[in-house]
Amino acid sequence: MGQAATGGMKIPDPYSLPLETLDVSKAALFAADAHGEYFRRLRQEAPIHYCPDSMHGPYWSITTYEDIMAVDTNHADFSSQDNIVIGDAPEDFITPMFIAQDPPIHDDQRKAAQPAVQRPQLIVLEPQIRDHVCDILDNLPDGEFNWVDTVSRELTSRMLATLFDIPQADRYKLTEWSDVATTAEGAGIEDVDAEARQAELMECLQYFATLWGERAQKPPQMDFVSLLAHNPNTKDMMCNPLEFLGNLMLLIVGGNDTTRNSISAGVVQMDRNPAEWAKLKADPSLIPNMVAETIRFQTPLGHMRRTAARDVEFKGHKIREGDRVVMWYVSGNRDEAFWGDPDVYRIDRNEARRHMSFGFGIHRCMGNRVGEMQLRILWEEALKRFDRIEVIGEPERVSSNFVMGYEEVMTRVHRK
Ligand code: HEM
């Protein structure tokens, strides 16, 4: 691999660097789309790798499909308590959330929120999502536009407003808060203004505290806030406002940029792989598998971190209690040993649904069905309307080791 340029910074060839100190947590690697070769080297030469020094401190990298599965399904040894991204949360502003908790708190809180995105409720949500999709696609401009803002961000913010049952007029507040929450130091982004971030999050708390007060007085409904306010295990959550804020952030972020980036990724891959687009047009029944393959290929969340709950002997490596253990889903989804030809985007790939992008074990993505449903409907409606969605120029990627996404994908639609 040659040198990739990113904002003036050169990305070195991973094979030119000493293996012992290889640091795959640098956000610039992902912004430049140069991380693939780094992970390939780790999978081949040190699939369980210890990086002694990084901007987040020392950490273990788990990079193969099989090893990631082993860590993700062993929550007794590999804890989610307090931190699920490589960087530690700031100690002066702890916002507990159930993704960053172990049983029993995790299980109780997850069960309380889950009905909002489970099967019976999906039947209620489907026509609402379809209406939003049709409205967005029918009103696209004729010329060039940024698909990320006009479609991906727009659709996911409408969806979130629906899941929280708040006025659609407030939907952009949700995406704004989600963006603030993910611009955390833990994601490998430097220059974060911590004070401004906290001020925004407190505004979010204020908004939802008012909503909680109203919903708690009314009969239970299927939106997230009502479900939490009425469940016996979560009805006192407002006594710890930062815990309420943490869980709000989880539910907002979880459903937001992951789905947004999967939508944009589909457009990028369809443009880069015209034969796959032709396959999809010829056989729309491939849409669900295309959605799974897109989510595999993109891996919207690049990693999840665990912390060793005790000294663990893991496949010949001594992992000490308290060590950071990073499961790189973005690498497991490109593990040659599991996938054969992982760098090929193929919408009829048989095993696409076995991707790692939703994680495994007790923390497996709670909203996977609703995320997939949004994507499925979007592609069903896009196929009805467009001959081609043309990507213009090179998409601009997010600079983060956690969120694998796009800032900008300039497009033009060719209507039927
Ligand atoms: C957890 C990815 C959509 C809500 C997770 C995890 C991943 C993930 C990797 C952690 C898994 C683990 O630690 O083993 C994704 C992707 C999505 C998506 C790739 C879309 C393509 C959604 C949506 C929602 C959502 C639409 C809700 C509206 C959550 C929640 C958790 C979670 C609440 C925490 C689950 C727990 O700790 O038990 N997601 N997600 N996600 N996701 Fe998603």
UniProtKB/TrEMBL annotation:
PROSITE patterns for the chain: CYTOCHROME_P450
Keywords for this protein: Heme, Iron, Metal-binding, Monooxygenase, Oxidoreductase
CDD domains: CYP142-like
Pfam families with a match to the protein in the record: p450
UniProt entry tagged with the keyword Electron transport: no
Family note: Belongs to the cytochrome P450 family.
Name this polypeptide is given: Cytochrome P450
